[in-house]
From TrEMBL:
Organism lineage: Bacteria, Pseudomonadati, Pseudomonadota, Betaproteobacteria, Burkholderiales
Protein name as annotated: ABC transporter substrate-binding protein
Coiled-coil boundaries: none
One Pfam family, short name: TctC
Family that this chain belongs to: Belongs to the UPF0065 (bug) family.
Species name: Cupriavidus malaysiensis
PANTHER family: BLR1237 PROTEIN, TRICARBOXYLATE-BINDING PROTEIN
Stored SUPFAM superfamilies: Periplasmic binding protein-like II
UniProt keyword Signal present: yes
Amino acid sequence: MSAAATMAATAVTVVFAGLAAASPAAAANDTAQAIRIVVPVAAGGSADKLARTLAPRLSEKWGRPVVVDNVVGASGTLGAAQVAKARPDGSTLLLAGEGVTLNAVLFKSLPYDSGRAFRGVTKAVVNPQILVVRPDLGVKTFGEYAALVKKRPGEIALGLPGNGGIAHVAHEMLARQLGIRVNYIPYGGGAPATMDLLGGHIDATLITLAAVTDYVRSGRLTALAVTTPYRAKALPQVPTLAESGVPGFAVESWQGLIAPAATPTAVVEKLSRDVAAVLQAPAVRAQLEEAGYAVVGSTPQELDATLTRDLPRYASVIAAAGISLH
């Protein structure tokens, strides 16, 4: 066995030793051996819900605690920085999405090297962004929304789950294509944006579908359109933007797990297989699909390819719209 292979095998042994045999009670008392999933947005949003769906199942599979840690701030870069600097042994993971790619464009400097800090573990799910409004705004379709925004340029308050996030970029794509302008209100995640919309403090939000599925079903929010080229199984009555007068429009967001770049390949591949197995369990898959996710469970290589492919597309939109952070 080569030296590199020996090191990788040793790393797997260190991180996952005894998982099959370890009792849950013993693992629960060994907090130093916990696996930490850093969620870089506020609790209650779609990323947080996904992490908390996976955590107990992964804990059962690995025989040790899996802790969800919300580290909020700086458009997700605070949480990402903690993972980038963590020990690369598989014990600290980032619940990430396209924000990792967007931040590499939006920030002039980051507390980590965006091109070298991470490696993909798995793209867990994909999800449409969905445009929802408060019911008393008086619009029922995307066409009515666009007409209202044109009539009142800069007045409609649209909450963003994060400044410069995928919702911001997607709505800028819409705005430039249709010649409309809204008043963007940035939040620290999907949950606070949703709460303010439910409370009538803002008019609309473009947000990950899983964050608002229940509110749409209950009639507390009105859904106008999804950003993907296909309708969502969880809300099949909601049309796509392409069906609603914006031909060719397509933005699909994703959420998954990434690890520090120096994490050994053998560790990353085991993590990926185990997370994919949890995702494909019938009960978990049904729960996630009911919430609005489409389950993927990709290989590390497929997630790395997504990270590489998305960068030029989003960079061009950000540059054209003049979106900039620090």
